[in-house]
Amino acid sequence: MATFPVSSGAEENVVDKEYCCSICKEQNTEINATFYCKNCNKFFCGQCINSHSKHGLWFKKKSAYGKDEIMKWPLSKKMENYLLKCDIHKDEQLTKFCQDHSQLCCYTCVVLDH
């Protein structure tokens, strides 16, 4: 079963490593995102958020969330994959649920232990 490492700076590290500015990424540049807009479902760096806010009236309704509101950001694909990895069988994804043990399992765990 996957576990999430807890540390005092975990939220900061997740932002820095997992979220890239959507606009910069389209131009083959990886810049850390500092904002997420829920209306257009995109991430923005400090520079791109300025041009984004100029053309969107929805911005006045607080649709963009900064790093201080990271809990409102969607789960990144990298983090989703990490959370779905089996702790025992590192190459396997958690795809089954064992009702007897009330835990998520990978296929190999089901065959061997459940």
From TrEMBL:
Q: Enumerate the InterPro entries for this protein.
A: TRIM45/56/19-like, Znf_B-box
Q: Which UniProt keywords apply?
A: Metal-binding, Zinc, Zinc-finger
Q: Which domain of life is it from?
A: Eukaryota
Q: Which Gene Ontology molecular-function terms are recorded?
A: zinc ion binding
Domain B box-type residue range list: 16-55, 81-114
Q: Which Pfam families match?
A: zf-B_box (PF00643)
Instruction: Fetch the SMART domains from UniProt.
Output: BBOX (SM00336)
Q: Know the name of this protein?
A: B box-type domain-containing protein
